[in-house]
Amino acid sequence: MKTEQRANFGSKLGIILASAGSAVGLGNVWRFPTEVGANGGAAFILIYILCVLLLGLPLMVSEFIIGRRTHANTADAYRILAPRTPWVLQGYLGVFTAWFILCYYGVVAGWTLKYLVESGLGEVTKIAHSTEYFASFTSHPLIPLGYMVAVVLMCHLVIVRGVQGGIERSSKLMMPMLLVIMVVLLVCSLTMPGSEAGIAFLLRPDFSKITPNVILSAMGQAFFSLSIAMGCLCTYASYFTDDARLVKTAGSVALIDTLVAIMSGFIIFPAVFSVTGVAPDAGPGLVFITLPKVFQAAFAGVPWLGGIFAFMFYLLLLLAALTSMVSIHEPPTAFLIERFGITRHRATMIVTAVSILVGVLCSLSFGPLADYRLSIFDLRLSIFDFFDFISAKIFLPVGGIIISLFVGWRLDKQIVRDELTNYGSHPVPEYLIRGYIFVLRWLAPIAIALIFVYELR
Ligand code: TRP
Question: What is the pTM (predicted TM-score) of this model?
Answer without folding.
Answer: 0.94
